[in-house]
Amino acid sequence: NAGVMQNPRHLVRRRGQEARLRCSPMKGHSHVYWYRQLPEEGLKFMVYLQKENIIDESGMPKERFSAEFPKEGPSILRIQQVVRGDSAAYFCASSPPVATGGTETQYFGPGTRLLVL
Amino acid sequence: GQSLEQPSEVTAVEGAIVQINCTYQTSGFYGLSWYQQHDGGAPTFLSYNALDGLEETGRFSSFLSRSDSYGYLLLQELQMKDSASYFCAVSSDSNYQLIWGAGTKLIIKP
């Protein structure tokens, strides 16, 4: 059973370009979470998705950032017109269906290190 | 609001025991999780406490006191490979996301 997969592992972009980060959850997991981590800091929640549905995007900047989790294929985190401040590690996590009133353990992918020049 | 506090850094000696504390504020508390992250790596799940008391998993144990809104991670027989950042995270029934602490960097000296 493959773990959470993310690609690319490293991504370099120039200011103004688009960054597209992919996440394939563990088999059987229908929930995906995206986090951002700056060096020496903790994880910051960005967005929580189920298949074809955004459940909570309260942590995602209103502009330039978007996320999707289509019926088929990986979840995509898209950052348009990147700026230097977007440089960070972006982690994806997945979990099984969440029971009401609780949170299932999240399993993390290896992350995508985004560097904006 | 929801918040967690944990020390930013803890130093210990190889072979010793170390305790990393976490206090939290949240409504509708459901459980406290601990994750380990090595430099350049991804967070990995260590433990989860929903009930008061101590949960032991090998050299690592995790404790929760719901009445005190407090938990800790206990690492015994420290090894150099335990040098990492440790995050506590709470889940609540008000939402489905985990709220993360800023992490505790554990430095282990020989």
Task: Present the secondary structure layout.
The complex is a heterodimer of chains A (117) and B (110).
Chain A: E1 5-7, E2 10-13, E3 19-24, E4 31-37, E5 43-50, E6 53-56, E7 65-68, E8 75-79, E9 88-95, E10 107-108, E11 112-116
Parallel strand pairs in A: 2-11
Antiparallel strand pairs in A: 1-3, 3-8, 4-5, 4-9, 5-6, 7-8, 9-10, 9-11
Chain B: E1 3-5, E2 9-13, E3 18-25, E4 29-37, E5 44-49, E6 53-57, E7 60-65, E8 70-75, E9 84-92, E10 99-100, E11 104-109
Parallel strand pairs in B: 2-11
Antiparallel strand pairs in B: 1-3, 3-8, 4-5, 4-9, 6-7, 7-8, 9-10, 9-11
Task: Give a structural overview.
The complex is a heterodimer of chains A (117) and B (110). Chain A has no helices and eleven strands. Chain A is mainly β. In chain A, strands 2, 4, 5, 6, 9, 10 and 11 form a seven-stranded mixed β-sheet that branches. With 110 residues, chain B is an all-beta fold. Chain B is 0% helix and 59% strand. Chain B is built from no helices and eleven strands. In chain B, the strands form two sheets. In chain B, strands 2, 4, 5, 9, 10 and 11 form a six-stranded mixed β-sheet that branches. Chain B has a five-stranded antiparallel β-sheet with strand order 1-3-8-7-6, with no helix packed on it. Chain B starts with a strand and ends with a strand. The mean pLDDT of chain B is 92. The interface between A and B is medium-sized, with 25 and 21 residues.
Shape of chain A: globular
Number of strands of chain B: 11
Helix content of chain B: under 10%
> Biggest interface in this structure?
A-B, 25 and 21 residues
Low-confidence stretches of chain A: none
Rg of chain A is 14 Å
Question: Approximately how much beta-strand content do the residues of chain B carry?
Answer: over 45%
How much helical structure, as a percent, in the residues of chain A?
A: under 10%
Largest sheet descriptor of chain B: 6 strands, mixed
Largest sheet of chain A: 7 strands, mixed
Helix-strand pattern of chain B:
EEEEEEEEEEE
Q: Averaged pLDDT of chain A, please?
A: 90
- Between the first and last Cα atoms of chain A, what is the distance in angstroms? 37 Å
The outline of chain B comes out as globular
- Indicate the structural class of chain B: mainly beta
> Which assembly state applies to the chains in this document?
heterodimer
**Total DSSP E strands of chain A:** 11
